[in-house]
Amino acid sequence: MEQERLLSPKQLSEIVGLSPAQIRALMNDGRLEFGEISSKTKMLTMSGWERFQRKATKVKHPEGDQPHSPLGKPQHHSL
What we know:
The chain is mainly alpha-helical. The chain contains three helices and two strands, in the order ααββα. It has helices at 9-16, 20-28, 46-56; strands at 35-36, 42-43.
């Protein structure tokens, strides 16, 4: 089994296009998982970043996908 490469916040920031401070903020908020090597050394993985992206990605549904009634007309269902 191949071990995944560990990345520092700076290394990950260079790969994904965020600043190291933004990466650290995500880690501090508990939104981005990391491994704690020591109290000052925290390392990340690309698979952790990918999980964060999946959880953080929101999809807005187009108006046509949501059931709605025209304004002014109450929705009543006949029995």
